[in-house]
Amino acid sequence: MSELSHPLYVQNGFPPILGTDELSLLLKRKNINNDRCNRPHTLPVACIPPDTQKPLWITEDVINWLRQYEETPKHLRQLNVRIGAPTKAEQIAKRKAVEAINNSILSK
């Protein structure tokens, strides 16, 4: 099977094994080697075969790594989510709602 007919190559346009040049194209970055040294947490895990010095990445692993960082669509995000204790206005509104429910139950 030639490299160009490999299923992964046909599926995403990249070879099944990536070098630094291909990875920089895929991630749209210029300094993959600098990132490997200074910010390794910003790259997928590389493979270094025996008797070689250059890192290689498996395309499927890189794509799976990228999928971990998919952004949630805006329409699915909760809007105006506050962290912390409710405001005084929220506390009063909740208390009035509970009192209204209790009054309607007692009046029946």
Compact description:
The protein has 5 helices and 2 strands, in the order H-E-H-H-E-H-H. The chain has helices at residues 7-12, 20-27, 32-38, 59-67, 88-106; strands at 17-18, 57-58. It has a two-stranded antiparallel sheet with strand order 1-2.
Q: Note the quaternary state here.
A: single chain
Radius of gyration: 27 Å
Shape: rod-shaped
Going across the major beta sheet, what is the strand order? 1-2
Helix content range of the residues, please?
40-55%
What features would you describe in this structure?
Helix content is 45%, strand content 4%. The chain has 108 residues and is mainly alpha-helical. The protein has a domain of 69 residues. A two-stranded antiparallel ribbon has the order 1-2. The longest helix has 19 residues. It starts with 6 loop residues before the first helix and ends with a helix. The model has no long low-confidence stretch (mean pLDDT 82).
